[in-house]
Amino acid sequence: MENIRKEVKSVLPMLSETLLDAILERLRSKGVDTRDDLQFVQEDDIVDLIKPIHCRRLLCTWKETEINPDTVTTQSRSIGDASPSGSKRHGTTTSNWPETIDISGIDMPDHIAVKLEAGERLSPTERSNAIRGFVSLMMKHDHNPIRSKCDIVARRIVSEWPQSFCDMNEDRSKLGSGHYSLLAQMKTRVEHVNRNNTLTRHRTSRKPKEGSNKVTKPTDVYGCIKWQPSLPKGETLESLGEKKESLKDIYTQRGSEESSTGEIDILMDHTYYLQRKMINGAPLPVSELKEQWPYLFVPEFFQKHFKTLTGIDIATSLLKSLQEKGLTILRFLAKEKWEDHNKVRPLIHQVVAEKDAVDMHTVAGAVIKGMMSYFKEKEDSLILNGDVTATPEEIEEETRDHSESPYLVIQGDDTTAKWMVVVEKKVIGKSTQADGVICGVAYLLCTYYNLNLQYQSNASTTLEFIQRCLIGINPDVGSKSHGQQCSQKVISFIRKLADFQWFH
Fold first, then answer.
1. What residues contact 373, with CB distance under 8 A and at least 6 apart?
2. C-alpha of 404 from chain center
3. Eight-class DSSP state of 174
């Protein structure tokens, strides 16, 4: 993707690095892997990120530039003819060896080669043996290959044997880029082999950080398909402003209890552009944003905004994932050995034992609490328990010493719970009835996307797990956490979970 980055920069040199990152992430999410794929990109794929004229300039360049046949690589032949694709690569050079080495040219036990040929999943032990072979081959060209070179080889391996090496969810859909855990394991193996060899270590200088006055951060647009749309046809800022004021007047008269009317639906839909413009502009306190858009924070419209922003019906996706994966996750946690920091293992065993009698809200509570303990994150960094009769003002008073990060307050047991979501020490949303913990978790996740918020560091792994495994927001690169990189812990867990399903 580095070549694509340079090409975009040459056509549009005025773009900031953060906007470049957003464009590259969008291209990856649309399936662009090589320069050849760019000719199939359409204007609608990226027009919400850059101006229409800039978009057309890019598309024109991509469609008019001929692809050099010499740059188009072919799939390599696998170990012992185990690959279902193409011919071997030849002509390894010092600089481009990751792209040209024959990844089939490694010593591999026969039973592993047979599995690769059949497109079967490797067991953890078989996978480790294969990785040792690949790393040994790489180290014939470079005693300590840097991460970018390992990345190229890992992508080739996954492309060659996707069923055997690709990161997958339990339903066998690709997880992220598909090669992240393989890359991490390969890099770990390289570091292990070189642990006592100081001569092979690379030293790199860190570039100074750019100024902090960036308008668009990668974490803002991460996972979004309609982050900042164009002004609707036939509308002006003035006409949309009038509709915003109408919504405020209606809320003053009716409140949130009578929000499910066609008139409010239409007005909220028409003013989505203005909502995003205000959220994406100069940061406002959430309390002030709520004053300007009171209906936005009503659960129904908060979830509709999320669906427009990401393309995902969060409540439906979360419930479906818990129905399909919830008990499997709990069975895995019950079987695995891990340090139970939050003392939730008894709850996990109880839910697994009573699986036919528990509902999905109970499963959801056990899954989230179990994952927080598994990832060594404190439960109160994300979820607090509140009195079932407490008002928003009382919750704000009781939690005034808590951080300003979003968190969920559960009032009652998981099944019949009411809930509130607190951001910047203010209750921004609450249940209108005892609708259970799943609805509360859905609202909490919407908060990070709708309001351009990063995951708090002390709960970021669990939040990314919910996002990727339960919600289905699964970009190839990036993260909503401060590191802006896909969590290795999450990828590793999901790979282990998939292996658990396949081998048990």
1. 338, 340, 341, 342, 343, 344, 345, 379
2. 23
3. B
